[in-house]
Design a protein that fits this description.
Alpha-Beta Plaits, 33% strand, 4 helices, single chain
């Protein structure tokens, strides 16, 4: 089991474009033995301590294997809509781990 946490930072004013991309990317996860476990939009009062900017969204996704995750990243249909990602996402931090 592979766990992916992603901190996503949006370009101001591009929230609708980001949602368009997510409407394509999130269902694609299922095709590769993946599952979206959490999709959170944190607010300022959710933070106890922070040494980085507040992300627009936090995603936690699981894939059965590393190969499943790699195949998801290579999905050609998803890649057709990368222009939406590039228009809307300023920065993303991806953290990969395993369940202990």
């Amino acid at each position: 089991m592979i766990l992916i946490t992603q901190l996503i930072y949006i370009i101001d004013g591009q929230e609708k474009i980001f949602d368009e991309f997510e409407n394509i990317a999130i269902p694609t996860i299922l095709r590769y033995n993946g599952r979206l476990l959490l999709r959170v939009r944190p607010t300022d009062d959710n933070f106890i301590e922070s040494h980085l900017d507040k992300p627009y969204e936090i995603h936690l996704v699981e894939f059965q294997t590393q190969q499943d995750f790699d195949n998801f990243l290579k999905d050609e249909e998803r890649k057709k809509f990368f222009y939406l990602k590039e228009q809307s996402i300023k920065e993303a931090i991806l953290i990969q781990g395993t369940k202990l």
